[in-house]
Amino acid sequence: MMRHEQILQLKEEGSAGACREALIRNIMGVDEIEYDDAVKVLEEIAVVCREGMFIHHLPYHIGAAVAVGAGIISFPLIFDLQTVQWFNTNYVTADVPEPKDLETWLEVGSWSWAWNEPVMGQISFVLLTAQFTRAQLLNLGISPYGNFMKKRRAERLIKKFPQYDEDFLKSYSYSTRLYAKHKEGHGDF
Description:
There is one protein chain. By secondary structure, the chain is mainly alpha-helical. Helices cover 75% and strands 0% of the residues. The chain contains eight helices and no strands. The chain has helices at 4-12, 16-31, 35-50, 53-79, 81-92, 105-139, 145-160, 166-175. The longest helix is centred in the middle third of the chain and has 35 residues, at 105-139. The N and C termini lie close together (12 Å).
């Protein structure tokens, strides 16, 4: 069994297992119960901590789906002759090269790149500036969405379980993953 000082040090370093263990020990002290009973209380806290998690990680799912979808769709929009011709007819109306200049997928790509390059370049620039903005927000100490949601989740736990140490609840909440459930094992540091 680890000493309390070691648990607290690991908790401060962000170890999810140590945050969990510190909270269990706090529950034991506050409720004056044994370890196994404190684990059961922690399981109740974990349920509350994970409430609404679908909404918390929904923007990440949407972002990933849009990115994958756009990446997949970009190939036929650049290299497939039928898709490029359809897109040109309906949205671009550029002059179509001679059939001899559209015999290979690379030639099709060379033609379609004329109108795809500005769009993809602009999307790339927007993503670059978004990454830069996020980095500057972090430098200013302003939390992006994920940290904002973790903070809200921690506040909910503190409000629902005021009898336990606020710092231990907050650390536990912050160390709980947004999506994949952390392996809840004894001594998991």
